[in-house]
## 1
Amino acid sequence: MIRPELSNWRVQGPTLGKIGLNALVHEWALVNGAINATVLADKPIIDRLTSESCPDVRRQALDALELPDLASGLAF
């Protein structure tokens, strides 16, 4: 779900991109068993999962959003 958003985040910049990240994570959590509360309680889960399943995409997202980790970009 992140890969298609990378070009948008690069163009939009980190401020708007982080809004997109939050929307994407909410959608991902809903699709994967409505685990939004789990993600809220353990934001680093997003970093653990993306490090395992798509490390290159994760790295590109961190660069585009200017974040040390994806959890830092989650506001919810």
## 2
Amino acid sequence: MSEKLAAPGGRTAASALAFDMGASSGRAYVGELKETPDGRRQLYVAEMHRFDNDAVRVGKHLHWDILRLLQDIKRGIRKTFQAGYAPATLGIDTWGVDFGLIDDNGELLGNPYHYRDPQTEGLIEELAGRFGADALFAASGLQFMPFNTIYQLYAMSKARSPKLAAARTLLLTPDLLSYLLTGIPTCEFTMATTTQLFDPRTRTWNKPLMRELGIPEGMFLEPVAPGTRIGRLSDEVLEELRVPSLETVAVGSHDTASAIAAVPAAGEPFAYLVCGTWSLLGTELAEPVLAPETLALSFSNEGGVDGTYQLLKNIMGLWILQECKREWEEAGEPHSHAELVGLAEAAAPLRSFIDPDDARFYAPSGMTDKIRAYCRETGQPEPGTKGELVRCILESLALRYRQALEQAERLTGRRFGGLHMVGGGIQNRLLCRLSASAIGRPVWAGPAEASAIGNLLMQFIAQGACEDLAEARRLVAASFPVDAYAPSEAEAWEQAYGRFMKLQRS
């Protein structure tokens, strides 16, 4: 793990095991809440297991290899106990929207579709035309994204999928993995809000919309709050792993919700950026913001822990850089992330920009050509070297962050003093530095493993070791270092932002 926040000494007050799964990899972390001899409490975190999470293409479809993920969760559990730890609970967080279908016998109906599967192409436009964009948005509060669960299920309904016809229960990915470990089906609130089938005003499933779309409404379980105890590992799993009994907890099961739970903010309204394959920029609120302007600015209202809603924007994040890196590796020119950052630092600044959310950057493959084509089409110099390409990506992301931050302020009527950045992307210190300069305000970066830490925090609350979210965030602030970045070169960045905004309008 990149950050080890507290010395392992002291009395262990609580212990938990977090599985944090992103779109490309999964990790298992054990967390111990320590009480030091001088009365302080700190969180000690150690990585137990790390594994790949690769999409599998079968014919025209892209799937998750869900059983291999289950096997790696089991390996992580076994390794944790073999290392001498004794967690009382286990929690799983993953990306949003994707799901598995369970039949009448309690068995999984095939491998779940991957959110980048092409079956949903054109469905945003179809449903917006059918119901009206404003009405469709008001029904969920979600930004229209092609991978939302509603479009996946509607695609299956249109195709008369036999899996959909045979399904008895729909389980979103972390709930599915928990079910495969315990045999107990659940639906966690933060994941439910990513489907675009959940009404944020009533906090219930939108069954009339399901009926309109031919989606079986009986598949959906009533959501439970983050911090709810689910149940213990099944006898079969315990026998297979030969470990003590372990209870599962529904944490903030959407990884974004877990990451935001770990933002070490001190109570005042704050803006955050969860930075990884995707970038999620927003602020935490008591209620969703369902005004038409929210839709116009492509913001979402996603559920958070402690009954909150997260007003946020999904931004194409470091996916673009990851795809370039993969492309170079396949061409026999591998580079570490540190090497690529070094090349970018040596490249000329503020030369060419892209709109990271241009639709062409959503699909994999050919990313360097797509970047050059965008710059060529918009009358900018084409990035030639690897360093120029990486610099273009990172500066464009930083400028997009400024745009989203200002839009969040417009929607809430708040002015934020800076930006809390969390997630694995903060290990790219150049991106943090560029982001501070782009927004013209401080950036506070840390912790990097925010989703796993937020997962652990909700388990500690469920165990009674932490009183509430405010206390949990104070624990993060006391345990994890935060790096501060100050803005620089204000005039150059202001000019660059003007150029960037012209690209947005072109």
